[in-house]
Amino acid sequence: MTPNAAPKNGAPLQVLSLACEAAQRLGASAVLILPDGPLDWDLVPSSCGGVPVLAASASDRQLQAIRDRGIEAIEVEPSEATIAERITLALIEAVANDLLKAGARVVVVYSGFEAEALDSLTVIRLGEHLERLTARDLRALEEWVPFETLKAVVDTAVEIGREGREGKAVGSLIVVGDARNVMARTRPLGFDPFKGYRRKERNVRDPRVREAIKEIAQMDGAFVVGRDGTVEAACRLIDAPMAGLTLTKGLGTRHWAAAAITAVTKALAVVVSQSNGTVRLFQDGEVILRIAPMRHARAMKWQDAESEPAPPRPEREKDRDRDRDRDRDRDREKEKLVKPTEPNPSAPSRSG
User: Fold this and answer.
1) Which of 53, 48, 95, 89 minimizes the C-alpha distance to 72?
2) Is residue 183 classed exposed, middle or buried when 0-12, 13-18 and 19+ CB atoms within 10 A define those classes?
3) What are the φ/ψ torsions at residue 244 (nearest 5 degrees)?
4) Coil, strand, or helix at residue 2?
5) Tell me, what's the pLDDT at 48?
6) What SS3 class is residue 198?
7) What's the pLDDT at 313?
8) DSSP label at 174?
9) What is the β-pairing status of strands 120-125 and 105-110?
10) 127-165 in b/e burial notation, b at 16+ Cβ within 10 A?
11) Cβ contact 139:195 at 8 Å
12) Is-above-0.85 flag for pTM?
């Protein structure tokens, strides 16, 4: 649900009022606020009629102001990710901190039109995005793979699922952790684009490495990433037994490979579905996290009609007009050819 744009000064109170009303009517577990820029937290209530208010930010100053207001603060990393990805990561942090339970319904308020204004809201059911993931699960994952490494991999996977590459949908498989055992159960498919680089030059926490992964994802095979975030190899074929595994109908080869490798190692596997961009996290041969694509979560940026320049006439439209004129001339020529000719009175008659 995205309300109409409102003036900056009145937007926070107006949208928060709508969010509180929605939270009470829907029986939501919390209202989550994700501002893009500075916000006057004195305008924000600490609860909505008994429904707690949570706020996520990467700014230390904002986090302190949130806590001073008596609002539960969720610390997230600075990121250029889309609002959809930031919402998902903030929800995961909230679950990890026992602020939300699996299956909860949350009203999320965010900056959709202007960076310094809360002007949009949406309702999310955690069960549709986090599967059975709980705080205990997240703490268990930390023992296998550091959370920072896992978040970097999940960020990359979500971007692959949302953006694809060169206008085409792309699927991918990234195996994280227990790299030695994983490498022993995989074999190269051919050229490895990461081979020969120093370890610090192939860490997933580096934005340039994540961009490289998004590009290489078009190639066949899986990525293998160590606990510290180093990409150990790319374009690997998983060679692990699938006997005894059970997956939801409709999941493809990458998902079965992810289930197989996580069933025989202590690795986690992140799979991007090529068909719809959904990201799934596997552990012990099962799906424990699903992030559905939310391509339209950010509201459209409206422009003032008075200040908007008139768009140039598209070349396609000009070509269409030329084709229409050419067809009209061709039809006229055809009419002339099929029209019966009048007898010429000066021509001699054959019957005579």
Assistant:
1) 53
2) middle
3) 85, 0
4) coil
5) 79
6) coil
7) 45
8) E
9) antiparallel
10) eebbbebbbebbeebeebbbeebbbbbbbbbbbbbbebe
11) no
12) no
The reported pLDDT for the residue numbered 309 is: 39
User: Tell me, what's the pLDDT at 8?
Assistant: 44
For residue 47, give both structure tokens: 């609860």
Token reading at 114 = 């202007």
pLDDT for residue 173:
94
DSSP 277-288: --EEEEETTEEE
Q: What is the pLDDT of residue 113?
A: 72
Query: Which residues does the chain have with pLDDT short of 70?
Result: 1-13, 79-81, 102, 114-116, 127-140, 293-352
Angle between helices 207-216 and 147-163 (to 10 degrees): 50
The number of beta carbons lying within 10 Å of the beta carbon of residue 244 is 8
The strand pairing partners of 223, in sequence order, are 174
For residue 182, which of 230, 245, 222, 224 has the smallest C-alpha distance?
Answer: 224
User: How far apart are the C-alpha atoms of 87 and 74, rounded to whole Å?
Assistant: 11
Q: Which residue has the tokens 């993931």?
A: 133
Residue 216, Cβ neighbours under 10 Å: how many? 18
Structure tokens at 251: 């999941």
The strand pair at 231-238 and 186-188 is best described as antiparallel
Q: What is the pLDDT of residue 79?
A: 65
Taken as a whole, the chain contains a residue count of: 352
